[in-house]
Design brief:
Blueprint: H1 25-41, E1 53-54, H2 58-70, H3 75-88, H4 105-117, H5 125-136, H6 145-153, H7 185-200, H8 222-225, H9 236-255, H10 262-275, H11 287-299, H12 307-318, E2 320-322, E3 327-329, H13 335-348, H14 356-367, H15 401-411, H16 419-434, H17 472-484, H18 492-504, H19 519-531, H20 540-551, H21 579-590, H22 598-610, E4 624-627, E5 631-635, H23 638-656
Antiparallel strand pairs: 1-5, 2-3, 4-5
């Protein structure tokens, strides 16, 4: 029985032409072979693949500011940092936070400050343009909390107007509705060292006497530094602003050593931070937490030669790429994620099951399984054997659902000389992953039911990352895996996930993409995930998604979308064609089992035509998402791995010619389209024994 969903009108004329030249089989085969050859040559000797994560200029700017706070500036390194910052400056004088985007206030002022600290004259034409842009964006008062805190460390912003991050939050247990573990894993890792810093307020005035007085549009007045209140009196934001005043009053007692819980909280925060250094490439293995941790250690009085200080500094240094002229910094490394995607693409594109490269990748991935009960246990106390994978090389406290799903998709089809080990690894990971399903049927990235919206109202939550809510892209990727593993549509967890995805579909047929830019990413993954179950893809609600994809196809046959779609959905599906986003759209259209569809043919031909002679694709745009509206990522491996998988998927479609992977087509029962009335309205799957997939 099909779902009764009203279908929107057809695609706008001119966006998706109805005719296309068939894909030449020899050209398709050649493009696949060239891509395979490149990727096989890019594998590291240990068996993994890793592409650079390219980000905005803020990380380099932050390190310049840190070195001046620390009083240990290397002139040669700083000269390279200056070169990098100017290379990222836009013609109007500002700095953006994604390729092709407009100037952003935090990125612009951080870069301006770093250049000023490095000795660039404020009368330099580039600095004058930067100053003008910064003022037009609201100047220093419009920066976010974390940026203001860094300024306070240099004596450039008053601590009294930096929202308090109280150490005592780490003492709050489950008995308190808004407790420490209700925050996202990355926020916990950033906020614990920041809470230590907030206590000590280790301001080190600049020897150079640098100020940012010129970046206050209305002059330096307290009224412009205070956080704005909601116009309505009784709101959660106003409550937390009042609470922040109370915290600042308590800080006076803390400074005079009569705060009742401060000493205990500081000790616990320090202990928490040091514990999570172990088994990780720095705190949480991500740049903001790692830099904050290094500053916190020094604020606590750790000497420069202390092993933990040296270790923290070393891990930060590893993130840097230094050349003779420039330096750039990655926010973290992505070997597990990249390796899983490349392994899937190579396997599905026909690389021999006995190929040593795939065997090395399998062994490396299995060796990265985390058998440690990390911080996920606080939100997910299920009696399940610890498992899971992370994004980075080492980060044992924070395995995540998305990487685990991608690794399992790889392990189920890549070769190994030890199938018993692989199957045991696969089943552990599958059972672990499925315990993270949230109340409304979806999956988030790191934690279970990390969705208490009240946390977004606290004054220091303006980095747009306090929560880790369920999202369609991760949920659909898990459904893709379960479909391949022959889970039934009647399985309770599958039913709840389908209901979640149906509820999340946009009016125009698309889905929001949390971890990739954006609606193209979400829509492709949902369609691919549902196709893995052998659903009848001719149902109106799914055709609506297909029509949306076709409506945003470009004249050149490709697809593209920029990060501004997170600011305003009116921009969804708009942006220069990219290899990765075209690949996602092609795979989304492949889900409808029609290899002769003109839009699909044009998309495949675009990928073939745009491939470079060495088997790679060129991509400048930012197509990865860290924190929507705040921080974005360009995965350099995306431009080469996803197109190969898309071409392989299309070739499989040509070979299959409409036969479903399970041999039949299923319709989603109508009752799953009804809204979830209350949390828990649909039964949960039982413990681990009900999770193992039949027929593996």
């Amino acid at each position: 029985m099909s779902i009764n969903v009203t279908r929107a009108g057809g695609p706008p004329s001119g966006l998706a032409p109805t005719s296309a030249t068939a894909v030449p089989p020899t050209e398709l085969a050649a493009a696949i072979k060239q891509s395979q050859h490149y990727l096989l040559g890019a594998q590291q000797p240990e068996g993994y693949w890793v592409g650079e994560l390219i980000v905005d200029a803020t990380l380099v700017a932050d390190m310049v500011a840190y070195h001046h706070w620390d009083g240990a500036v290397d002139p040669a390194w700083e000269k390279k940092a200056v070169h990098h910052l100017f290379s990222k400056q836009m013609p109007d004088g500002g700095w953006n936070n994604y390729y092709g985007g407009p100037a952003e206030v935090n990125a612009t002022i951080k870069a301006y400050l770093a250049l000023k600290l490095a000795g660039v004259a404020v009368t330099d034409p580039r600095m004058l343009r930067a100053r003008s842009v910064a003022l037009s964006l609201g100047g220093v008062p419009r920066m976010n909390t974390f940026s203001k805190l860094y300024l306070a460390l240099l004596g450039l912003f008053p601590w009294e107007h930096v929202p308090t991050i109280p150490c005592e939050v780490i003492l709050l247990g489950k008995w308190f509705h808004v407790n420490f573990n209700e925050m996202s894993s990355w926020s916990r890792s950033m906020l614990v060292p920041l809470a230590i810093i907030n206590h000590f307020k280790p301001t080190r005035p600049l020897v150079s006497r640098v100020t940012l007085d010129e970046l206050y549009p209305e002059g330096y007045h307290d009224r412009d530094l205070k956080l704005a209140r909601d116009p309505e009196v009784f709101t959660w934001r106003n409550f937390f602003l009042w609470l922040d005043k109370l915290h600042k009053f308590a800080e006076w007692f803390a400074e005079h050593r009569i705060h009742p819980f401060r000493k205990r909280a500081l000790r616990r925060a320090e202990q928490w931070m040091l514990e999570r250094f172990e088994g990780s490439d720095g705190l949480a293995a991500i740049f903001p937490a790692m830099l904050n941790a290094l500053i916190a250690l020094k604020a606590l009085g750790y000497p420069e030669d202390h092993p933990q200080v040296r270790r923290a500094a070393h891990e930060l240094k590893r993130l840097q790429h230094e050349t003779e002229e420039s330096v750039r910094i990655e926010p973290c490394f992505s070997p597990v994620w990249d390796t899983a995607i490349v392994a899937i693409a190579l396997a599905e594109s026909g690389v021999s099951p006995e190929h040593p490269a795939l065997k090395r990748a399998t062994d490396w991935l299995m060796g990265k399984e985390i058998r440690f009960r990390g911080d996920w246990q606080f939100k997910n106390p299920a009696r399940v054997e610890p498992s899971g994978w992370v994004f980075e090389f080492e980060n044992q406290w924070n395995p995540d659902v998305d990487d685990t799903a991608m690794v399992l998709l790889a392990l189920r089809q890549v070769p190994t000389d030890d199938p018993a080990r692989r199957d045991a690894c696969f089943q552990r990971g599958l059972k672990w992953m499925l315990t993270f399903q949230c109340k409304d049927g979806g999956w988030g990235a790191f934690d279970k039911d990390c969705t208490k919206n009240i946390l977004e109202k606290v004054p220091f939550a303006d980095h747009n990352a306090m929560l880790d809510p369920e999202c369609a892209d991760i949920t659909a990727r898990i459904l893709e895996l379960l479909g391949y593993e022959h889970f039934s549509l009647d399985h309770p967890q599958v039913q709840r996930a389908l209901r979640y995805l149906i509820a999340e579909q946009e009016e125009d047929g698309s889905w929001y993409g949390r971890w990739g830019v954006n609606y193209i990413y979400g829509t492709w993954q949902v369609l691919r995930g549902l196709r893995a179950f052998g659903l009848d893809m001719q149902q109106p609600w799914l055709l609506k998604a297909r029509d949306w994809l076709e409506s945003v196809q470009h004249e050149d046959g490709g697809w593209g979308e920029r990060c501004d779609t997170y600011e305003d959905p009116v921009f969804k599906g708009r942006g220069p064609s990219t290899a990765s986003q075209t690949a996602w759209a092609v795979m989304g259209l492949c889900a409808f089992d029609d290899p002769d569809r003109p839009s699909l043919i044009r998309g495949v031909n675009h990928l073939i035509r745009s491939q470079n002679p060495d088997g790679t694709w060129t991509e400048l745009e930012t197509t990865g998402t860290g924190f929507p509206r705040v921080f974005y990522l360009k995965y350099d491996m995306y431009r080469n791995s996803w197109p190969l998988l898309a071409l392989a998927t299309y070739r499989q479609l040509l070979e299959r010619r409409g036969r479903g992977p399970n041999g039949h087509k299923q319709e989603v029962p109508r009752e799953l389209a009804t809204p979830i009335v209350a949390a828990g309205a649909v039964g949960r799957a039982g413990p681990a024994q009900s999770v193992a997939a039949p027929g593996r």
